[in-house]
Amino acid sequence: MRIELIIGGVVSLGLLVAVAACGGTESDATDGAGEVDAGSSGTSGSSGTSGSNGDDDDDDDEVPGSSSGAPTLKSDALVQGNVVLAGIAGADVIYLELAQAGVSLNAVPLAGGAPTKIADLGAEDEYLVNGGALALWTDVDGNVGTLNVWTRATGLKEDVASSSIVRGLFRASADGARIAFTQDVTTTPQGAPTSAPVGVRDTAASTNAVTLTGTTPIAGNAMNLAASACAPRMSFSGKVFFATFCTGTDASATSAKLVTVANASPATVVRLDAASGAPAIKPIYVTDAAGTKVFTIASANSAGMLINVTSPVTRATFEDDVADGTMLADGSGVVFRTTGNALKKASTASPPVVSTVLGADVKGLIRLSPDGKSLIFNKLDRQQGNPLIDINAVDHTAAVPTAVSIVPTASGVPLGFSGSSAFVFFLGDVGQSGAKLKSMPAAGGPTRVLADAVGALAVGSGTGAVFAANPKQVGQAPSQFTVLELGHVDGATGEVSKIADGIPEGEFAAKDKRLVYSRIAQQGSGLFAVTLP
Description:
Layout: E1 43-46, E2 75-80, E3 83-89, E4 92-99, E5 102-109, E6 116-121, E7 126-130, E8 133-141, E9 144-151, E10 155-165, E11 170-172, E12 178-182, E13 186-187, E14 193-196, E15 198-202, E16 210-212, E17 223-224, E18 233-237, E19 240-245, E20 257-261, E21 269-271, E22 281-287, E23 293-298, E24 304-308, E25 314-319, E26 322-327, E27 333-338, E28 343-347, E29 354-358, E30 364-368, E31 374-378, E32 389-395, E33 404-417, E34 423-431, E35 434-441, E36 448-453, E37 455-458, E38 464-474, E39 481-490, E40 496-504, E41 508-511, E42 514-519, E43 526-531
């Protein structure tokens, strides 16, 4: 990876996304948004010395493996020079500028415009992009530092919190107007975090709207960071904050609280998992898009639980032995898997109405379609460390839901649905030198081979995807890294367009139909954006 000491990976391309009922994939803190695999919307990286970028000896006219002769989409130059993409915060691209004088964090509008310098990046500083904000930790000592936050609206807000956990427990609303973060973290003599109060505030404010604090196992609201089986999770649905966490400092704790903080003044912490008493749920949850309903799993009997957040809070359990699942974005229901590998769904009516989608052989949920109607799942057991799995799809809204086999054996890598929900993208024919990007109608039909690829990312609301191909090593050890060639393909028609070559691995991201990427070349290095078909 390019300048390994500076970046920790901006976008993971082609990596299989794990599924959990919480809707997240990070081990330390995840979002609870309303998709099966909806994880953090931001990216993280760690800073350090810049090192060598190496030289790019590639022919700039070379095109991706299966797009020879294809037209090239016109890209807009956002910033010229030696830069590293860090992520997208709201309508801004966050990037590192690497200069002789040092490394700095900067922002430039995704649509194009004048760049803004945010801050110089010290050798020990850490940063993370989430929602519409950039978090920057300075004076880092081990796992904690001083938190500073940048948004386009507020500029850099310095000294937001002290002793804040770096690169994980920070969340921002999509517009960056509201943030949540750890502060005043308690650590062991060896520096391991054990407990963390959480501040929630408007980003423009100078004080917290509310602080989750206290380590009393029942009454306390500070996050237990010592419990390895109870990782804290937090997210925003709109500007409504949610979090689940074990309390106290007991390393063996497993039952969690679920709380919310509405976007209101005065702000209050409202407990959702129970009216009182001991924490009552597993540390997982998924919300609807509006932040009015929550799905979680109770500690007792692994019962599915639906919570209506609007006052007064109501709770309803609907089935025991729930393994995982997801809330539909519109809040109309939950699709879930049982420990017996049945796929079911429950309405959010009172009481919930449960129906069976598939009676057996659903061993893992992989992805919910953007329209919420279809799911990708696997029937075979996953092999630890092996991303290859079988791929199946089902429309849970059909009168008689029927599983569609896309890849029957453990030989595919599922990449998700097209933005239109009509197609499933996946990698097949996976070998040491790469794979084939393929698509298949989610409702069943012929498989289309789209391109030689090492990964892909569905973009926009149509049937398109960005794919990466032809990985090449450039530079000299220890600063050697991989560059890729990017192309765009329509999953319905197979039409291919070239985007660019010389893109360092992980240094591209998309928002709607706007793709941003950094590029290195003997001529033309910089940060670019392209509007996709």
